[in-house]
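chain below, 660 aa
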Amino acid sequence: MAVAGGPPSPNAPTQPTFADPDAPVVYKPIKLKRLWQTHPELSLQRVKILHALYRGGHHLLGNMEVMRIVFPKYSYEKDSAYADRCARAFYENLFAMSVNQLSAGLAQDPLRIQPNDEDDEDALDQIKDAQQKQLDDTAKTQQDQLDQLSDQDDDEEDDDEDAPPTPPSPPSAPPVMKAIEVEPTGPTYDEYWTCLMEDAGPPTSLVDKRSFDQIMRDWCVEALVTGRGWLQADLPDTNPEENPRNSLAEQEEAGDLRAYLCTWSSEHVTDWEIQNGEFLWVRTYECIVPAPTPDVIRGERVIHRWTFWDKDGWQRYELEVTKDKPMPNGEVEIPPTTRGTHSFKIVPWLMLDFCSHGGKSHLHVGDLLASLCMAHFNRINGEHFQWTQYNYQQLYEFLAPEIGGIDTPVSEAQSDPGRATRGARSPGAVHVRGEQDRAEFVGPDMEGAVAGQQAIQELRDGVLRVVQQMALSQDTSGAMLRRSGDSKQQDQIAQEIMLGAIGKRLLQGARLAMKLLALGRDEDVEEDVPDVQGYEHFDVTDVDDIINQSVLVAQIDVPSATYKIEQLYRLAVAHLGDGTSDKIRQKIRLELQQSIKQDDVMAQQHANMFPPPPPSPFGDDENDETDDEDEEEDEPDDEQTPPPSKPPAKKPPFGGSPVK
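prediction:
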């Protein structure tokens, strides 16, 4: 069982020791500073920032620990001004838009149990047998009709020659070939695997039931955001002493062997060690703030829990912090508490690693999005704050001099220096001003605002181009280098390339997860585990574009039945949408294979290449004459036809009356 991982950690904890992977693990008290230690490739602060940028909303704007990093203070900015900016801040979540678009693209080809080729061959054999039976029935019916006509001719010869002949009954039309209805048969596996495709989460989760495909995509989203996604396999918690089982059948019936999967956040998987592609151990961390009864004040008691997972079981270390028991220093040793076992025979964890090391491609989208999203976040909020403060027109009062010149009287209103602010401005209010007073709205120069808006738009486009830039590193066919005049088509090509690279890694992880579940159920991973398919075929083109392409392609005669079947199948599935079940899709493919044959395609191409000759402009009189002569030659010799008294009239070559 191989997992994706990085190089072994040089700073692995010294306790417990894992010198021999096959030896049983002996847990001893561990110093608190060792429990707080994280893997060298893991930065919890970085993971918190990436999670906040992906989730957005109050997860970012209400988390001041993260806000001080992604939305820092300006130089010499006062705390009150910074608090005002944080209160006005808003976040356009371009991070989640890019990641969720990739996750939604994976849903175009969801995971499913791969049907056996023998099942498709059996279905096609059933169709061929039924069609052959129809052909045999048709041939038999036509032969019966010919025998009936022959019997009628013999009866007419025995009748009186003077009696008028009875017109033969017209032959009935041959039976029409009907489509053969064959229900696709799925592979025969244990019922557990079929149920797993529909619900792969913990059995205690009655509300949040997630399919196997959904869990895989959630696993992938965590890896796209933080670089690593974590998946744990487990079995239901049963008490053998209270509920003894005498056989595997009883365990299966009671649900004890219903292995399930759990996705973990990267913040809670703090350290691990890998040797020869397999985990030696994995450590998780949880912070629990319990309130056993309603009268307990939550927060007065905090439990810090660390759990080590190895090939035999798991071991917990717990530290309780209260007012009377504060957090100790790092040198204090924490003793082990609860111990449990599992039946997976290996560490029941899988890591989906999208970071670039070990020769694998870099698919960590969040690492490239984070800096651009933070720059966009600061730029757009800075511009918004500036517009609020300066980019609105202000009312200015221009007052005339209160002291006039020589022999120039000054009015009573104009002699008041506070006349501009004496009364509030409102509809219907009368304002007394001097003769030369005036009020004007004065606005700032908006050229800077236009430049700022353009810079924000360019930065936003840069965020959305990250997927296209990553697609260049994954493009092995040169599709991205074949420049297209349509930028939308270029974006579609980039997304398809990225989905192909991500889907390939995720499909490998899904197969490893099924083998891990089989180990927990004590099954043969080679014989009892069905293969899965999915995350391989992606088409981000709109349905309208697919239909338009199909109309254009239909004008090109490609003499291939397989090509026509695949083309029509893709068109039908795209039109029906993602909600179409696998059974319906399989039935559509079987019906297309039934109706489109290579012989029919070649016959149609031959007919298109050699069309029948056009009808003669001279009519069918000459042909009718020839047919009459043939009929006369076929008559028996004993009946002599008297010669005509006059020679037959000759017809002119270009119509008109016959020439005598």
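The chain is about 40% helix and 10% strand. The longest helix spans residues 117-158.
thats it, cya
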